[in-house]
Amino acid sequence: xxxxxxxxxxxxxxxVQDNWRVSQIRNIGQIHDNKPVSxxxxxxxxxKGDKAIQAxxxxxxxxxxCIVVLVGENxxxxxxxxxxxxxxxxxxxxxxxxxIHNLKNSKGEQANKGSNxxxxxxxxxxxxxxxxxxxxxxxxxxxxxYVYDHIKxxxxxxxxxxxxIRNEYK
Length: 170
Known about the structure:
The chain has 170 residues and is an alpha/beta fold. The protein has one domain: Rossmann fold (3-Layer(aba) Sandwich). The protein is 41% helix and 13% strand. It has helices at 15-26, 39-47, 50-61, 79-90, 144-168, and strands at 9-12, 66-71, 94-99, 122-123, 128-129, 136-137. The strands form two sheets. Strands 1-2-3-6 form a four-stranded parallel β-sheet. The chain has a two-stranded antiparallel ribbon with strand order 4-5. α3 (50-61) packs parallel to α4 (79-90). The chain is globular and about 45 Å long. The model has no long low-confidence stretch (mean pLDDT 90).
């Protein structure tokens, strides 16, 4: 798939549990203008309450063409991840998921596979399950190195595909 320029994406993930795994993906360097938020900045936003968190998410979703949900063991059904998915879909952004449980964390540990976070969303007049529209990739490897390489090799195409899928459902 031919891609023109780098896309601006928003990464959605369970911060406490998966930040280390996510930092590996962010370091791939294929995505434009995606600066990770520091622990201190995130704690500062959280202390201000739900309205501040929502405002931070809304601001950071602006000008993004796609949301990439990095699915760890406990990602599905989290309040703010659900908000990010729903807002992104409703705003016409591409949405894609990638399972990251087989990437190692800072302690060298892998996790259990998490549920598909798109399973409990319904869209359109016929209330079609979002998981039947949006793809959630599970790299076919157990080795953290191979999982990373697989994501690196396919990330841009998955993002482009998610944008195309969303454009079909406008």
